[in-house]
Amino acid sequence: MAAVVPDIQTEADIQLLVDTFYQKVHLDALLDPVFNEFARVDWSRHLPIMYDFWSSILLGSARYHGRPFPKHMPLPIDATHFQRWLELFGSTVDELFAGSKAEEAKVRALNIATMFEYRLRKRDPLSLI
Ligand code: HEM
């Protein structure tokens, strides 16, 4: 019988989702260098921002007030990176949670990733040809 997993309901759930996702990012040969070599992310600062971001989206806490897209403009990322990001995020959600918030998390991630990828592609004039 499949294990019963809860839906995303609490701040502890958000933290578990974010922490587990970025552990997978660390182990990923495509994404890890973008975060740790190119951007040299300060994780003690970045993780709490991501808790606020996902808590605002999924629990309505309204704690995140940033503008995420500009942070991604200088990054050396394309469709391949977004595809991997979405695979890791989706598998993290599915391992830990099930329910309407879990589904919403994946839909929101897909929508935001699609929008980021589209806007980043416009950075490259050749992509318009
Ligand atoms: C290839 C995919 C992605 C990569 C490599 C990436 C990488 C990064 C990096 C390096 C930062 C800056 C961290 C810092 O300031 O130290 C960042 C910030 C952030 N990212 Fe991403 N990201 C990706 C996709 C996404 C997606 C799909 C979302 C949303 C669903 C997202 C949401 C955010 C948010 C909310 C921040 C914080 C912005 C702020 O400081 O207010 N990212 N990301």
Mind explaining what this structure looks like?
With 129 residues, the protein is mainly α. It has a single domain, classed as Orthogonal Bundle (Globin-like), CATH 1.10.490. Helices cover 66% and strands 0% of the residues. It is built from six helices and no strands. Helix 1 (11-26) packs across helix 3 (43-59) and helix 1 (11-26) packs across helix 5 (79-96). The protein is globular and about 50 Å long. The mean pLDDT is 95.
Global outline:
globular
Regarding CATH, which class? Mainly Alpha
Q: Give the tally of structural domains.
A: 1
What would the average pLDDT be, to the nearest integer?
95
Q: CATH superfamily, please?
A: Globins
Distance between the first and last residues' Cα: 52 Å
Number of strands: 0
* Estimated structural class: mainly alpha
Oligomer classification: single chain
What amount of the residues lies in strands? under 5%
Lay out the secondary structure.
Elements: H1 11-26, H2 32-38, H3 43-59, H4 68-72, H5 79-96, H6 100-121
The structure holds protoporphyrin IX containing FE.
Protoporphyrin IX containing FE is lined by residues 31, 34-35, 39, 41-42, 46, 49, 53, 66, 68, 71-72, 75, 77, 81-82, 85, 109, 112-113, 116.
